[in-house]
Amino acid sequence: xxxxxxxxxxxxxxxxxxxxxxxxxxxxxxxxxxxxxxxxxxxxxxxxxxxxxxxxxxxxxxxxxxxxxxxxxxxxxxxxxxxxxxxxxxxxxxxxxxxxxxxxxxxxxxxxxxxxxxxxxxxxxxxxxxxxxxxxxxxxxxxxxxxxxxxxxxxxxxxxxxxxxxxxxxxxxxxxxxxxxxxxxxxxxxxxxxxxxxxxxxxxxxxxxxxxxxxxxxxxxxxxxxxxxxxxxxxxxxxxxxxxxxxxxxxxxxxxxxxxxxxxxxxxxxxxxxxxxxxxxxxxxxxxxxxxxxxxxxxxxxxxxxxxxxxxxxxxxxxxxxxxxxxxxxxxxxxxxxxxxxxxxxxxxxxxxxxxxxx
Length: 359
Ligand SMILES: Nc1ncnc2c1ncn2[C@@H]1O[C@H](COP(=O)(O)OP(=O)(O)OP(=O)(O)O)[C@@H](O)[C@H]1O
Hints:
The protein is of the alpha/beta class. The protein is 39% helix and 22% strand. It has helices at residues 7-10, 13-19, 37-45, 50-55, 86-93, 116-126, 142-146, 148-152, 157-170, 186-199, 216-233, 244-250, 268-273, 278-284, 319-329, 349-357, and strands spanning 24-33, 60-70, 75-80, 101-106, 109-110, 127-131, 204-208, 236-241, 253-258, 261-266, 310-314, 333-337, 343-348. It is globular and about 70 Å long. GO terms for molecular function: ABC-type quaternary ammonium compound transporting activity; ATP binding; ATP hydrolysis activity.
C-alpha cells in the first residue's frame, strides 16, 4: 500500500493535539512608522501610495493590509526582497511591534490585546525564536545556551539539562555540550540556536532569516535538519527568507511580500505553476520544477489501459523523484494514484520530463 499521507497526516496524534490550536491568522494588518500613524491609516483605504506616504506625509509604510492564514503544525514561509516588510511582519507575531491597524490571532486570541502579563506568558511559553546571527551568549557553554529559556522559566536544573541534552543530540551536537560558541563553526552555532529554541517546547517557532548567514552547503544541511525534525515536532513555524529556493524547499505555504504587501500566497507548486504577475514570474523563471511540481499537477484523468506495464506512484510524488523511480525501474510508464489508491491516469517519461522543463 502506498503511503500517500501528507506529513501533517502522518504526525503523531498527541503532537497534533498540542499544535492544532496554534494556527496564526493575520487579519487586515497595516503598519505605518512615523509620528502620527493613526492619521495615515485612513489614507491607505483611499489608495495613497507608499511613495506619497513617504514624500508628502513623511511616514514609512511598513506593511499594508496583510491577510495570511498560517496553518498549525506547518511551515509558513514569508519571502521577499530587502525592505519588503518580512521582519516587520514576523515581529508582529510576538508583538515586538504593535500594528497600526489589524489583528494577529494565535489560537484565536489577538496578541495585540493581551495584557502585559499575558504577553509575557505568551512569549515565554508559546513562542521561540531562531535568529540570523544565532544570538548565542558567548560566555556560556553550548549546554548553558541551550537551557537558557528553561532557566528563565525557573524549571529545575535536572529537567533543563535533560531537555537540552535531548535536543542537542537531535541536531547532531552530542559531545559538544561543554564547548563555547566561538569554538564552533557557523553551522554548528545555528544548530545550538535551533536546539535552544526546541528546548523551550513552544508550539510556535519564529525563524527570521535563520539560515541566511550560512554557507550554501551548510544552509542546505540546516534546511534538511529542520525538515526532518518537523516531521516529528509539527510546530507552527514562521520562516522568513529572501531566497526562493529555500522558500520552496521549506514552505508548506509561502507568502511573497513586495513593498509591504502580499503579492501572492499559496503552496510552492501553486506559485511556480501560476505566478500572479510579472514580478513573481521573474522570481520563478529559473526554479527547478522537478523539485516543486507534483505528479498531480501533470496527470490527466483517464482510464488505465489494461496492458500498461508501469510503476505506481502517489500523485504527491515530485517530478524529479518520479523520473528517478522510473529510470531505476526500467519501465516506461507511471500509473498515478490518488491518496485513496484510485488510479488517476498514466504518464510517460517524456511527459514528465516536458513538465519539468516547463512551457
Ligand atoms: N522602526 C522603523 N522606522 C521606520 N521605518 C521602518 C522601521 N522598521 C522598518 N521600517 C521600514 O519598513 C520597511 C520594511 O522593513 P523590514 O525591515 O520589515 O523589511 P525586510 O523585508 O525585513 O528587509 P531586510 O531583508 O533588509 O531585513 C522598510 O521600508 C523599512 O525601512
